[in-house]
Amino acid sequence: MNMYQRSGVFDRASLDLTSRSGAVLNEDLPLLEYEALVSNETAHFRFISGALIWLDIVSCITAATTPHLLLCHSTVMAPDSQIRLEDIMGCKNWVMRQIGRIAELHADKLQALRQGHFNCQEFKRTIIDIDIEIQRGLDASESDSAAFCSPPTLITPVFANMASVYLHLITHGFQQLGALDAVISRTMIMLQTEVPTHVLPALVAPLYVIGSVAREGDEQFFRDAFSSPPLLDPSLKQRTRILPILEEVWNKRKAEPAFLWEDSLELIHDVLLI
User: Fold this and answer.
1) R_g of the chain, CA atoms, integer Å
2) How much is the pTM?
3) What residues contact 93, with CB distance under 8 A and at least 6 apart?
């Protein structure tokens, strides 16, 4: 990620783009009938930018850090942005933006606690605002029946439910999990009845975060998911480490009442959830 920042991918002047491609990117124009060179350059730039935003956010979930590219989120993931993460990793921009905000909030909380100036009221206000945005996005998604059962239509709500669980974990840790019953029940129904098996590789991050708070009766689903194809991929060996970590999280949750989300991150901090 530091290499990415130094290379200045979002600094279009530093890239060898044609002037027309630069203009399309600067004005965030849709690709219509531009010549092949402009279309290819613009599409490649947008794909790389979106992929880096995605990987940056996902890495922060387990690292408990602020996204390195946070300053880009408001433009890159704006509602009218031509960079659409749903075309890259399956989840719509609005959810990934909220997950990035939660990662930032968690990192800020930990730093404030270390320095002894944690503002509980400000933290709660941000929690409420993020929760409202998640619910608003879910409501809008439910009312949008276009492209029914397309991958983003299936993947986005799972990531949104993961965001709700993630928000709870940075606030309450593994305490008060009863408050998540509705979210967990809704997600388990989706995973077991609506999401095809071949879509599961796009859901590694939600499967881990939601799996970490799984009810005892739901644990077997996550065991099966993380111990068989298509999640087990020889090119993504980090996935083989996730199930043993989940098992340890489940055991520690039961054995140690004071076990925190931050404690669980020590087990998985070097695993990228993709």
Assistant:
1) 19
2) 0.88
3) 76, 77, 78, 79, 81, 83, 84, 85, 86
**DSSP classification of residue 256:** -
Range from 3-12, 43-52, 109-118 that averages highest in pLDDT: 109-118
Q: Is the peptide bond before 157 cis (omega within 30 degrees of 0)?
A: no
Per-state percent for the chain, helix, strand, coil, to nearest 5? 70, 0, 30
Q: Are 212 and 264 in contact (CB under 8 A)?
A: yes
| φ, ψ dihedrals at 35, nearest 5° | -60, 160
- Closest C-alpha among 170, 156, 171, 244 to residue 206: 156
State the distance between the two ends of the chain, measured CA to CA, in whole angstroms. 16
Burial of 58 (0-12, 13-18, 19+ CB in 10 A): buried
**CA–CA distance, 183 with 191 (Å, rounded to integer):** 12
Question: Residue written as tokens 């599409």?
Answer: 43
pLDDT score, position 7? 39
How large is the average pLDDT for residues 241-249? 98
3-state secondary structure string, 116-137?
Answer: CCCCHHHHHHHHHHHHHHHHHH
User: How many beta carbons lie within 10 A of that of residue 67, not counting itself?
Assistant: 24
Residue 142: pLDDT band with limits 50, 70, 90? confident
188: tokens are: 């388990």
Question: What pLDDT digit, counting tens, does each position of 56-86 carry?
Answer: 999 999 999 999 999 999 999 999 899 999 9
Q: Kindly report the CA angle at 102 between 28 and 116, in degrees rounded to 5?
A: 130
| Under 8 Å between Cβ of 191 and 221 | yes
